[in-house]
Automatic annotation (TrEMBL):
<keyword id="KW-0418">Kinase</keyword>
<feature type="binding site">
    <location>
        <position position="159"/>
    </location>
    <ligand>
        <name>ATP</name>
    </ligand>
</feature>
<feature type="binding site">
    <location>
        <position position="54"/>
    </location>
    <ligand>
        <name>Mg(2+) 4</name>
    </ligand>
</feature>
<keyword id="KW-0460">Magnesium</keyword>
<feature type="binding site">
    <location>
        <position position="236"/>
    </location>
    <ligand>
        <name>Mg(2+) 3</name>
    </ligand>
</feature>
<keyword id="KW-0547">Nucleotide-binding</keyword>
<comment type="pathway">
    <text>Cofactor biosynthesis; thiamine diphosphate biosynthesis; thiamine diphosphate from thiamine phosphate: step 1/1.</text>
</comment>
<feature type="binding site">
    <location>
        <position position="55"/>
    </location>
    <ligand>
        <name>Mg(2+) 1</name>
    </ligand>
</feature>
<feature type="binding site">
    <location>
        <position position="239"/>
    </location>
    <ligand>
        <name>Mg(2+) 5</name>
    </ligand>
</feature>
<feature type="domain" description="PurM-like N-terminal">
    <location>
        <begin position="38"/>
        <end position="150"/>
    </location>
</feature>
<dbReference type="InterPro" id="IPR036676">
    <property type="entry name" value="PurM-like_C_sf"/>
</dbReference>
<dbReference type="GO" id="GO:0009030">
    <property type="term" value="F:thiamine-phosphate kinase activity"/>
</dbReference>
<feature type="binding site">
    <location>
        <position position="40"/>
    </location>
    <ligand>
        <name>Mg(2+) 4</name>
    </ligand>
</feature>
<keyword id="KW-0808">Transferase</keyword>
<dbReference type="InterPro" id="IPR016188">
    <property type="entry name" value="PurM-like_N"/>
</dbReference>
<keyword id="KW-0784">Thiamine biosynthesis</keyword>
<feature type="binding site">
    <location>
        <position position="85"/>
    </location>
    <ligand>
        <name>Mg(2+) 3</name>
    </ligand>
</feature>
């Protein structure tokens, strides 16, 4: 079959397979490009420091539904999810640019609402909006944010440097954003059937907030710096904890073992998963959009992090041959599977 006739569906190789294919055909030519495609952010030599650059796009109907996502929250989230990628490199965010694709459904006031959220996030993370691009879109809203950050050269953390016997740590808790989405989707269905019903989501406030207004864990980045700890590897959890564990394992060429009874659970997340007939552990491992940090540290650094209130150790880095394992509460060893968020 000739090259023109061949057609591979993106779903066949998946998002990561597609990125690998793009990366394979590009070699970097500038010595200042220290790291290109493959980590949470690119790393560019800038003298004593490095510059970190990352882009994340949010598409209406894929990443958000404006029937329950206020535009102000969307603006905040679009910035926070980008800042999260700079945090994952152990860097400090400095500037952002924003590209907007807008259909004629959006008014000036709507755009201003979006930018109010952007401004809140810029204040929270001390970043400057320095530019962007505005264009029309045939349908819906597309938001693409690029963030630029900085780090001292020796402090940058990659996905690739986890070592056997390192301790695996996470911040916060998992599955909350997914459960928030479930709650919002359920209320939307109720509203469709009976528009007079006012949704009551007050009891799920934490979950809804996790979905609509996630926070990048810059607080933990500063805590680690104060504690004098440079993780051996780090990634932010956008697609699901298991999927991110796989990225660390693949790029570091190691195996991983995590313990079910060590996974940090928020009680409301757990209860809501049960209410929705979902397995809470599966939700924690595969729910997306928590924007927590997953990192590994040398055993010698354990004492420095053990008292950090929002950091939990969940397992250890193993030899590659040992594979990816979950030790269940009953002590059974089962293979860890990564479902991740599938866009294709
Ligand atoms: P994250 O989940 O941390 O945002 P992604 O999985 O989106 O990371 O991306 C992984 C890597 O692939 C990053 O280095 C990113 O810059 C790169 N990448 C993603 N999409 C493309 C693309 N269309 N072209 C070039 N590089 C890409
Ligand atoms: Mg990331």
């Amino acid at each position: 079959m000739s090259q023109e006739e061949k057609r591979t569906e993106i779903g066949e190789i998946g998002e990561f397979g597609l990125i690998d294919r793009i990366a394979e055909s590009f070699k970097t030519v500038n010595t200042s490009t220290l790291i290109g495609i493959g980590d949470d952010a690119a790393v560019i030599d800038a003298g004593e420091h490095v510059k970190l650059v990352s882009t994340d796009m949010l598409v209406e109907g894929v990443h958000f539904d404006l029937s329950y996502m206020p535009l102000e929250h969307l603006g905040y989230k679009a910035v926070a999810v980008n800042v999260s990628d700079i945090a994952a490199m152990n860097g400090i965010p400095k500037q952002i640019t924003i590209g907007l694709g807008l259909s004629n459904r959006f008014s000036v006031e709507a755009v201003e609402s979006f930018y109010r959220g952007v401004k809140f996030a810029c204040e929270d993370y001390a970043v400057d909006l320095i530019g962007g691009d505005t264009t029309s879109s045939p349908r819906g809203l597309i938001v693409s944010v690029t963030v630029i950050g900085e780090a001292a050269k020796e402090k940058v953390t990659y996905r690739k440097n986890a070592e056997v016997n390192d301790i695996i740590c996470v911040t916060g808790d998992f599955g909350g954003a997914l459960m928030g989405l479930q709650v919002l989707e359920r209320e939307k269905e109720v509203f469709k059937v009976n528009p007079d019903m006012q949704p009551d989501i007050s009891e799920y406030e934490y979950l809804v907030k996790r979905q609509l207004k996630p926070a990048a864990r810059m607080d933990v980045i500063y805590e680690l710096a104060d504690a004098g700890v440079i993780p051996t590897s780090m990634i932010d959890v956008s697609d699901g904890l298991a999927s991110e564990l796989f990225h660390i394992a693949k790029q570091s060429d190691v195996g991983i073992t995590i313990y079910e009874d060590k996974l940090p659970f928020d009680e409301l997340t757990y209860r809501t998963a049960v209410e929705f007939n979902l397995d809470p552990v599966t939700c924690a491992l595969n729910g997306g959009e928590d924007y927590e940090l997953l990192f590994t540290i040398s055993q010698s650094d354990f004492d420095k992090i053990k008292n950090l209130p929002d950091v939990t150790t969940i397992g250890f880095v193993d030899k590659k041959e040992s594979g990816h394992k979950l030790i269940t509460k009953t002590g059974k060893t089962v293979p860890l599977t990564a479902q991740g968020w599938k866009h294709f």
